[in-house]
Amino acid sequence: MNIWVKKTDDSFENARPLTDSKRPLTTFYWTSEGKYLVFVKDHNGDENLNIFAVSPYENVSEGELPATRNLTPFKNIAARIYKINDKDPDTMMIGLNDRDKAWYDLYKLRVSNGELKLIYENKDRIALFEFDWNDELRILFQRDENGTTTFLFKKDDVLVPIYQNDNSETAYTIEFNEENSKFYLVSNKGDVNLTTLYLFNPVTKEAEKIESDPINRVNINKVWINRLNKKIISTIYIDDKMEYNWHDKEWEKLYNYLKSKFPDREISFTSYTKDYSKLLVTVEADKYAPEIYLLDTKTKDLTFQYTPMQELKNLEKYLSPMQPVRYKSSDGLEIPAYLTVPSGVKPQNLPLVVIPHGGPKGFRDYWEFNPVVQYCNRISERVVAMENSFRMPVIWSGEN
Question: What predicted TM-score, i.e. pTM, was given to this entire model?
Answer without folding.
Answer: 0.92
